[in-house]
Amino acid sequence: MLTLYLVVPCYNEEEIMECSARTLLNKMNELVENRLILEDSKIVFVNDGSKDKTFEILSSLCRNEDRCVLISFTKNFGHQNAILAGMMFSREFADAVITIDADLQQDIHAIGEFLSAYEKGCDVVYGVRKDRDSDGLFKKASANLFYGLMRLLGCDVLANSADYRLMSRKALETLSEYSEANLFLRGLIPLMGFRSDIVYFDVKPREGGKSKYSLKKMITLAIDGITSLSIKPIRFVTFLGLGMCLFAVFMIIFSIYTWVHEGAVPGYTTTVISTWLVGGAILLSEGIIGEYIGKMYFETKKRPRYIIDSVIYGGKKT
Fold first, then answer.
1. Phi-psi region of 169 (alpha: psi -120 to 50; beta: other; left: phi over 0)
2. 1: burial class by Cβ within 10 Å (0-12, 13-18, 19+)?
3. CA 130/CA 194 separation, integer angstroms
4. pLDDT tens across 55-85, in order?
5. Where are the domains of the chain?
6. What is the DSSP letter of 106?
7. So what CATH class is 4-215+304-317?
8. 89/311 Cα distance (integer angstroms)
9. How far apart are CA 187 and CA 306, in angstroms?
10. 4 contacts 115 by C-beta, under 8 angstroms
11. Confidence (pLDDT) at 296
């Protein structure tokens, strides 16, 4: 048996928080009764600067339930940082940590399979969705585009993977040595190379509220994933510049040919097309390079990835 900590990032989840917390507590008690985990196993809720009553609900719960711990941020630092904070807190006490979203759309019955894979010697167990039938057309298409683009750029990311995974204490200790500010855990963890396995799970509809991952947040996560794992976009800029130079040579030859044989320089349309094409290529190149420079800017500052306001457990507050 092992000491298991569940890490649950929470942001504005007042509609479902009590129900989710009770469901997780029941699951933990079931695992203890079945002698799959030890009695000192806990659930770590990370309040990521919620603006609703999520903090009040969780603080009340954690003061009355010894199995629950609440870590509360000073403000919203983002989903990836909330997961990281919970894992870094838990690695001092747990043999293994499982991260799961507060809406419990990820099937909690898969936890038993995570534990089985851990017992077989896996330090990392990835949760992967069986399908995307529950997603809308836009989300399904954008997800497929994202994972296809990541593979094209050489990023080692499991298709349809989620932040629903198990990590051993050894893997967490290694993860703690990675200090980058721009986190993309789905791509970073496979880079560590630990023995791993995959558990497939069903996705359930939300019981209340709505997803906190807006289109803007999904785009930001995608950009962070690409720029933190691959330099191929910069190489793309190099080849794009080379292509524009070759196109410019072609246009010069074409202009000279037109002037010699027709006695006139190329017309307005050619000028406008070539100007816009080259201008667009330059702006695109500068934008891609700017993304990397921006990431370097934040990395060199060495700012904390999150700030903990309080920790509440067993009636205590620190």
1. alpha
2. middle
3. 23
4. 999 999 999 899 999 999 999 999 999 999 9
5. 4-215+304-317, 232-301
6. B
7. alpha beta
8. 10
9. 20
10. yes
11. 76
Looking at residue 97, what DSSP letter applies?
Answer: E
Which token pair is 164? 């629903």
DSSP 233-291: HHHHHHHHHHHHHHHHHHHHHHHHHHHHHHSS---HHHHHHHHHHHHHHHHHHHHHHHH
CB 79 within 8 A of CB 67: no
Place of tokens 């721009």: 182
Sequence letter at residue 14: E
* pLDDT the model gives residue 263: 59
Q: Phi and psi at residue 113, in whole multiples of 5°?
A: -70, -35
Contact residues for 146 (Cβ-Cβ < 8 A; gap 6+):
222, 225
Best CA proximity match to 62, nearest among 229, 312, 282: 312
Give 188's pLDDT tier (boundaries 50, 70, 90): confident
Q: For 22, what's the count of Cα atoms within 13 Å in the CB-facing half-sphere?
A: 5
Q: Which of 97, 102, 132, 126 is nearest to 113 (CA)?
A: 126
Helices (H), the chain: 17-33, 54-64, 79-90, 111-119, 137-152, 169-175, 185-191, 215-229, 232-262, 268-301
Q: What pLDDT score does 212 carry? A: 55
CA–CA gap between residue 68 and residue 17 (Å, rounded)? 13
Token readout for 119 is 């017992």
Q: Contact 175/72 with Cβ under 8 angstroms?
A: no
pLDDT in tens, 133-152: 666 676 777 777 777 777 77
Distance CA 291, CA 297 (A): 10
